[in-house]
Design a protein that fits this description.
The protein is α/β, with parallel strands linked by helices. The chain contains 13 helices and 13 strands. Among the domains are: about 65-235, 3-Layer(aba) Sandwich (Rossmann fold), CATH 3.40.50; about 250-335, Formyltetrahydrofolate synthetase, domain 3 (Roll), CATH 3.10.410.10. It has helices spanning about 10-15, 20-30, 40-45, 50-55, 90-95, 110-125, 140-145, 155-175, 195-205, 215-220, 225-235, 250-265, 270-285, and strands spanning about 30-35, 40, 60-65, 70-75, 130-135, 180-185, 210-215, 265-270, 290-295, 315-325, 330-335, 350-355, 360. The protein has a 4-stranded mixed β-sheet with strand order 8-10-11-9. Strands 5-6-7 form a 3-stranded parallel β-sheet, sandwiched between helices. Strands 1-2 form a two-stranded antiparallel ribbon. Strand 10 (about 315-325) and strand 11 form a beta hairpin. It is globular, with a radius of gyration of 21 Å. It starts with 7 loop residues before the first helix and ends with a strand.
């Protein structure tokens, strides 16, 4: 089974440019194979119209009011570890008509959401980003520096310095696309002044533009410094955006390129099943599609235990899945699951309604 947010229908919904394109993509979805191992699609079954009917309202972006009473478009939710991790094309296009700059999230790190946004979504719609904001937290960097998760509230400058290598790799990945960037240091109340200043100094010494953001604590006012510095970066930096691979490259070359240039792997090992699928998919004419890597979000490698900036590793591709309607091929790596469970303490356990009917536990 696949979790809903990683399903091909979610990807189709988020990559369709309009209702007509949605129907076209739904029709191309492969649902089975016949006895001759030829793909059977939704269009072959003649039910793309019925599916489009079910989704005709869902395809419309949601206009939402933030807690500061400003408008935001929230639409679509594919996970970035096992799906392409970007909001809908329709919402992005709508936002671009309403503002001078559109800020959109790509899930997890530069190895997942950003790579997929730039190689899949941006390519799909001809989007040329003005810049990339790489969000970093001191807690995450300390964990990548070897600190236990239960101890992250404690000050540890050495762990922060050791974990900085992970952030540098994400910066290098964005640089490889030729895009201007800035690191947003997402400050939390548990971060000490020394830790914050150390991270700013590390960034400055490495020539990495960075700015403190305190939106978590102060709301929009806490992001003004970041926004101002980002605009400065956009105006003064050269933008030479280019995709990491050509669609004419083979599926194997695309996977190898992502593994080596984005993850820092020495190479890729394909399982016997994946090797067979590479040949099969190319024969079906799917070799021209981009690749969507399904990989753990906890590590640059496909092993969630390898933190920091690992080296000397290979990526294992165990299986390929055709998401022809969405317009990409999914490569399952390591032990990644497409039906993950909830965390040990899901947020829902803290949510409730008090005696006066007020919502509690949402923040």
């Amino acid at each position: 089974f696949d979790i809903t947010v990683a399903s091909q229908i979610m990807a189709v919904l988020c990559l369709a440019s309009d209702l007509k394109d949605l129907k076209r993509r739904l029709a191309k979805m492969v649902v089975a194979y016949n006895f001759d191992r030829q793909p059977v699609t939704v269009g072959d079954m003649g039910v793309e119209g019925a599916l489009t009917l079910l989704l005709k309202e869902a395809v419309k972006p949601n206009l939402v009011q933030t807690i500061e009473h400003t408008p935001a478009l929230i639409h679509g939710g594919p996970f970035a570890n096992i799906a392409h991790g970007c909001n809908s094309v329709i919402a992005t296009e709508a936002a671009s008509k309403l503002a001078d700059f559109v800020v959109t999230e790509a899930g997890f790190g530069a190895d997942l959401g950003a790579e997929k946004f730039l190689n899949i979504k941006a390519r799909n719609e001809g989007i040329e980003p003005a810049a990339v904001v790489i969000v970093a937290t001191i807690r995450a960097l300390k964990m990548h520096g070897g600190m236990k998760k239960t101890e992250l509230v404690n000050e540890d400058i050495q762990a922060l310095k050791d974990g900085f290598a992970n952030l540098k790799k994400h910066v290098e990945t964005i640089s490889s696309f030729g895009l201007p960037y800035i690191v947003a240091i997402n400050r939390f109340i548990t971060d000490t002044e020394l830790e914050t200043n150390t991270l700013l100094e590390l960034s400055n010494s490495a020539g990495i533009p960075a700015a403190l953001t305190e939106v978590w604590e102060k709301g929009g006012a806490g992001g003004i410094a970041l926004a101002e510095k980002l605009l400065d970066v956009i105006q003064k930096s050269q933008n030479t955006f280019a995709h990491l691979y050509d669609l004419s490259d083979s599926l194997e070359v695309k996977i190898q390129t992502i593994a080596r240039r984005v993850y820092g792997a020495d190479g890729v090992e394909f399982s016997p099943k994946a090797k067979k699928q590479l040949i099969e998919f190319e024969s079906h004419g799917w070799g021209m599609l981009p690749v969507c890597m399904a990989k753990t979000q906890y590590s640059l490698s496909d092993d969630p235990q390898k933190l920091g900036r690992p080296s000397g590793f290979t990526i294992t591709v165990r299986e390929l899945k055709p998401s022809v309607g969405a317009g990409f091929i999914v490569a399952l790596t390591g032990e990644v699951m497409t039906m993950p469970g909830l965390p040990k303490l899901p947020a829902a356990l803290n949510m409730d309604v008090d005696e006066d009917g007020n919502a509690v536990g949402l923040f």
